[in-house]
Each structure stands twice: as C-alpha cells, then as structure tokens.
Design goal:
single chain, alpha/beta, Rossmann fold, 2 domains, 4-stranded antiparallel beta sheet
C-alpha cells in the first residue's frame, strides 16, 4: 500500500492540516485562483485531490459547477456533510485520481495544497497529467499549487517542533535522490497518545514542472510565486503553475 492510501494518515493529521486558519484562508485563495485562471461564470471545475472540500465548497457557493475527487472516504463524507448543510450542489466522487477521466468536461482543474508528486513511479504522474489534459475542454486550465524545490532549498530545516490546537507536532526532513525526493517523518502527540508517519514525495522546480506539463501536451505554462500572482523569485511564497490545454 502506498503511504497516501492509508486513510488513518489523513484522519490523524486532519486537525493539523485543516485548522481554523486554513479554512479562513480559503475565500482569499479562491479569489486568487479564479483571477489566475480567467474562467467565466458557471464554469465547470474539477477539484482533483479535493480533501475535505475547502475549495470545492467555496467554489460552489459562488455558483460554479464543481466535481470533487478524492480517494479518502472520510474526507469526502465530511465534505458532503458540509455541502448538504449549506444546500450546495457538488458532485463528490470517491476514486483514485490516477484513474479518473472525463473527456472535455471541465474548464478548470485544480491540484492544490501540495497534492502533486505523491506517486512512486513517474509514469503514474505522466498518466495523471494525461487524464487531466483529456478531462479539460479546449482552452481549459490546470492549476497546481506546490512547495517548489527552490523554496524548499531556501527555507529547509532538518527538524521542527511546535504546539497547535493542543497537539505537539514534530517533523523530520531529509533530501534524497539528488534533490528529487523529500523524506518526511511526522509525529503527533496529544493526551499521552502518539502517532507517527513516514513518507516521501517527489519535488519539482519551476522549470521541471513546466517541462513536465509541456511534454504532457499542454500548450502554455505560466509560473507564479503565490496565489496573488507575484513572480516566482527569491520572495515567492508558493510555486503556482497554470497550464493551458
């Protein structure tokens, strides 16, 4: 089983990954994503690796036609419950994004919050990109949000420890395979209980991600250093990529 197929990982770390501050940031992130993509009203949006539905819910509130795909049942159930409470119409699909394909059905596809680079084999990432490309309508946009390799090098720490919402959080990190993989060991402790997970994911520079998407069939790729559209330079906050079919 791949590390990201372990539902307990996502359930255990959800309070840290999706805290109140993260939810509060969502409307501003969606404002920026819509501006970067340039899509119009009533556009069809695919939220790939949607998690607990932060962005899918906000997009549906604004009238967009949203399909949200994730492989973690608990996350989809939580997102569905939130949508029903607000009477929002969102299509939630429990599926592996390596398989999901719906030809020419979306104007915008999203992969946010460092959900890219999980797969062990590069061929799986190529397949995922191909499926996204085929699922976009002509002229459609694929937006990716990751922590770029340049930013990891700039801000790298081997260990960290902090308190958040009553949890003691510890992290250990190591760069591997000629700076292509980031090793992570995360630990959570609360009320005497401790949970630890170890995993690796592939990291990309802006140039590498641009090349990957162009080779995958996208016609244009724009690079930004944050949701606000700033340049990807020494002051960048994130690596945001907008690829056009």
């Amino acid at each position: 089983m791949e590390w990201f197929e372990d539902d307990q990982f996502w359930i255990r770390f959800a309070p840290i990954m999706f805290d109140a501050d993260r939810w509060a940031d969502t409307p501003g992130e969606v404002d920026a994503l819509l501006k970067l993509s340039g899509i119009g009203e009533n556009s069809r949006i695919l939220d790939s690796c949607c998690g607990v539905g932060r962005h899918a819910l906000e997009l549906a509130r604004r009238g967009y036609l949203v399909t949200a795909v994730d492989r973690t049942r608990a996350y989809l159930e939580a997102a569905q419950e939130s949508a029903e409470a607000e009477e929002l119409s969102i299509e939630f699909i429990l599926d592996d994004v390596r398989r999901f394909l719906r030809p020419e059905s979306f104007d915008l596809a999203l992969n946010l919050f460092t959900s890219f680079g999980f797969f062990t084999h590069r061929e799986e990432e190529h397949s995922y990109i191909s499926n996204i490309l085929s699922s976009l309508a002509p002229g459609g946009i694929f937006l990716i949000d990751v922590n770029g390799k340049e930013l990891i090098a700039r801000d790298f720490v081997e260990t960290e420890e902090y308190l958040q919402d009553g949890y003691r959080v510890q992290g250990e990190y190591r760069l591997e395979k000629d700076f292509t993989l980031l090793f992570n060991r995360w630990s959570l402790e609360k009320d005497g209980e401790r949970y630890q997970a170890t995993f690796r994911h592939r990291i990309y520079s802006a140039a590498e991600l641009r090349s990957l998407l162009l080779r995958g069939g996208f016609s244009e790729v724009e690079i930004y250093g944050g949701y606000d559209g700033r340049p990807y330079d020494h002051k960048a906050l994130r690596l945001i990529v907008a690829a056009k079919r």
